[in-house]
Amino acid sequence: MSFLAVPPEVQQLIIDELRRSEDLKARAELDESFIIYHDLINWSCLHSYFRNLLAPHIFKTVKLVNDEKSGASLDAVVRSPHCVHVETLHFIGSASDKVKKRPWAFHLEKYNVEKSDSEQSDGEHSDGEQSASSVHDGIFPRSVDGLLSNSQRFLNLKSLSIRVDHYGLDTDDWGNIRNEENAVFEAEADSPWRALMSLGYAALSRNKTPHVKHLDIRQLARKEVSTFRRAAFHVFLGHLEQFTLSIHGEILGMAGSNLDGYYSNAQCEYSEIIGTLDQCFFDHLAHVTILSIKAPEEGPLGQLGPAETRYSPLALRAGHMPLLKILNLEYAFASRELIGFLVYHQDTLEEVTLRNCYASVEDPCRGTLWSKLFKSLWSARPTKLRRFELVRDKPDPPFESEGFSLDEEETVQTLLQDPGNMIFPYANIDQKSGRLVFDGKSTWRAFLEQKDQKYWCRLKKWVDRNAMKVIEE
Q1: CA 256, 261, 267, 273: dihedral to nearest 10 degrees?
Q2: Packing angle, helices 440-449 and 451-472, rounded to 10
Q3: Taking a C-beta distance cutoff of 8 angstroms, is the pair 220, 169 a contact?
Q4: Which is it for the CA torsion 16, 24, 298, 450, positive or negative?
Q5: CA–CA gap between residue 89 and residue 65 (Å, rounded)
Q6: Among 387, 374, 390, CA closest to 467
Q7: Which residue, 136, 99, 145, 144, is CA-closest to 114?
């Protein structure tokens, strides 16, 4: 029997299974940023019927890199009937070869660009941005710039992600913490990969009629980007309905140096950049309803770091994102910032997920107990909150009996028999390395006292009540 004679519902089952296998493979390889459905592509080559059948799946997500070939290929998609199927665009930038082979060429060309721009008539470029004609072809080709700055060419584009590989983030430039405006411009002129970050976000800013509703910034580096301070970029952010941010974490160290094992929270640049997230992003997300922030395990947010100066704030304040419905946080501490933010959104929040998050007893100025967070949110009586989840990717730690009396040990063991009793994790930031350190003593002391459990149950009861109301309606 010809494959063309296979019933449509069976064909759809085959498509779903092929997509599922590729999805599982991507998860196993820890790379879900872009999935190529090789089997579907091969299948589509068999017949024009299958090309048309599979096009919505193959072209639903497309990838763009900063080279002329990729730009030309995606431009061809835009000009084809398949353009209507594109819903997500992934831009992945890399300047590694240019850094290694021709740094001097970029210095020279940058100088020529600045000279030619200065000779143009006043008012031709707004907000200090370069025109597409001045884009450095070796770093950011004109075809790539044209696609990112005219995203409306993708008629049904909903989501755009951007990631620039972090070449140059090594111990050699660890001490360079000058993030003043002039220093940032100088660094972007000297470093191609930093210029690439600036040019990429500047291209997004030039969309005259932004229709992208979801911006996903992946692996944000501990480097200032000049475009993040520009009004045009802030206008672009103002059109978004969903904002996703993941932050690059690292452990610095060289054998025999004094940088051995320095985590992100011990790095001045990291805490400085994290401290500007509100000015660069959060202050301008007026229409966002879904917010996701994924900090790295090497640099969780909201807790005092080494030397009492390395504080990486959550940077969320009451007043940010007044329409917010869904909040997803990963590797953050329960803090006064977070409590104020949650309580402010008591009439809009519907779902909250805290993944690998901790409370702390060692930072009374900023940190807080789990019970304080649960009690504050429960007391606010959030009207729409129907889901509140704490998720841990690691198993609950075993009980540590040191510091507990025999009676207390027995009580803990009794409490552990009840599956309804949760273990709420506490942690601290190591004052030398900046490493996240699990605080077993505080965790089990809080479990013994059951105060966190008490207010967790009250909050969950309220949340479940809201969920039932939604079902009944």
Answers
A1: 130
A2: 70
A3: no
A4: positive
A5: 11
A6: 387
A7: 136
Question: Within a 10 A sphere around the Cβ of 458, how many other Cβ atoms?
Answer: 15
CA separation for the pair 359, 371 (Å, rounded):
9
Q: What is the DSSP string of 157-168?
A: --EEEEEE--TT
Three-state SS for 202? helix
β-bridge pairing 427-429 and 436-438:
antiparallel
- Residues 6 or more apart from 98 whose CB is under 8 A from it? 105, 106, 138, 139, 192, 193
Phi/psi for 45 (5° steps) reads -80, -10
How many CB atoms lie under 10 A from the CB of residue 301? Answer: 27
Could you give the C-alpha distances from 16 to 11, 52, 435, in angstroms and in order?
9, 16, 42
> Distance between CA atoms of 234 and 238, rounded to whole angstroms?
6
Nearest C-alpha neighbor of 207 from the set 226, 233, 178, 170: 233
Average pLDDT for the chain: 80
pLDDT digits (tens, 9 = 90+) for 42-68: 656 656 666 667 777 778 889 999 999
Q: How far apart are CA 223 and CA 194, in angstroms?
A: 8
* Token duo for residue 321: 């994102």
Give the list of residues 6+ apart from residue 117 with CB closer than 8 angstroms, or none.
125, 130, 131, 134
Q: Which of 251-265, 267-281, 331-345 has the lowest mean pLDDT?
A: 251-265
Rounded CA gap, 78 and 86, in Å? 9
Question: Which residue, among 140, 95, 93, 91, has the nearest Cα to 113 in the 3D structure?
Answer: 140
Q: What length does the chain have? A: 473
Backbone angles phi and psi of 345, in degrees to 5: -95, 30
Q: Rounded to 5 degrees, what are φ and ψ at 123?
A: 85, 0
Cα 190-162-273 angle, rounded to 5 deg: 60
CB 66 within 8 A of CB 192: no
Residue 143: name the closest of 208, 90, 74 by CA: 74
pLDDT in tens, 72-108: 999 999 999 989 999 999 999 988 644 443 343 343 3
Structure tokens at 389: 């989840």
